[in-house]
Amino acid sequence: MKAVNVTVGQSVTPTETLFELVDPDHLHVELTVFEKDVPLLRPGQRIRFTLPNDSSAERTASVYLIGRTVDAQQRTVRVHGHLDRENDPSLLPGMFVRAVVETSARRVPALPDKAVVDYEGKQYVFRLESSSAKQQVFRMLEVRRGEQADGYSEVLLPGAAAGARYATDGAYSLLSKLKNAAEEE
Fold first, then answer.
1. Pick from 135, 53, 128: which is nearest to 96 by CA?
2. Are 61 and 85 in contact (CB under 8 A)?
3. From CA 24, how far away is CA 37, in angstroms rounded?
4. What is the pLDDT along the chain (185 residues), one digit of tens a residue?
5. Does residue 85 sit in the same domain as residue 117?
6. Closest CA to 74 of 31, 105, 45
7. Quick check: is 18 in a domain?
8. Tell me, what DSSP letter sits at residue 14?
9. For FRET with 82, which of 18, 67, 127, 178 sits at 20 to 30 Å CA-CA?
10. What is the Cα–Cα distance from 76 to 34, expressed in whole angstroms?
11. Is residue 158 part of a domain?
12. Judgement on whether residues 97 and 117 belong to the same structural domain of the protein
């Protein structure tokens, strides 16, 4: 039961709503999408979403229905999605979610945002050249950053070697050590 609009002894007319019932057995996710993004949407696309109080657990759904009318004030369209896992006990009717609709599914080389450093107007990554018990040797390579999403950056690596390993965290620390060592020489 979501709402009770009546109290004991109250007079009601036949047209008044007394109760609002909600069946939590078949929940859906409903998104509000800006009208400029609607042409990118198709039924069946994957929706990834998180709850405001639990952004660590990502949930999924798929686009089922795309609204046919634009809200005049907000310039948005409603998008209805079916949950992949409907019986999630942490989902309740009326909750807000943060959602991303996957509009394309191309595979690209990507690294965490922390692995790409901006230095003197260019972007760089650090490739692991050699590793021993005492030290690791990295080489600084210029790259072009492509699209960014969910903490990852597409990296366009010229002549990328298959199976190469890259520093995924602390790239600014490596840059700092490299530049300090160059200044000491």
1. 53
2. no
3. 30
4. 566 777 888 888 888 887 765 666 678 899 999 999 999 999 999 999 998 887 778 899 999 999 999 999 999 999 999 999 888 888 877 889 999 998 877 788 888 888 888 888 888 888 888 777 778 788 888 888 888 877 888 888 776 666 778 887 777 788 887 777 666 55
5. no
6. 31
7. no
8. T
9. 18
10. 4
11. yes
12. no
Instruction: For residues 70 and 117, state if they share a domain.
Output: no
Looking at the fold, whether 77 and 55 belong to one and the same domain comes out as: yes
Give the domain-ending residue among 83, 101, 119.
101
149 found inside a domain: yes
CA angle 62, 95, 112 (to 5 degrees): 60
Residue 20, beta-bridge partner list: 3
Residue 176's CATH number: 2.40.420
For the chain, the first-to-last Cα distance in angstroms comes to 74
Q: Give the domain range for residue 160.
A: 110-184
- Looking only at the bridges linking them, the beta strands covering 46-51 and 54-66 are antiparallel
**Domains: count for the chain:** 2
- Structure tokens that stand for 96 in this block: 């807000």
Instruction: Spell out where the chain has E strands.
Output: 3-4, 19-20, 28-34, 46-51, 54-66, 76-83, 98-101, 110-112, 117-119, 122-131, 136-149, 152-156
Q: What are phi and psi of 172, to 5 degrees?
A: -70, -35
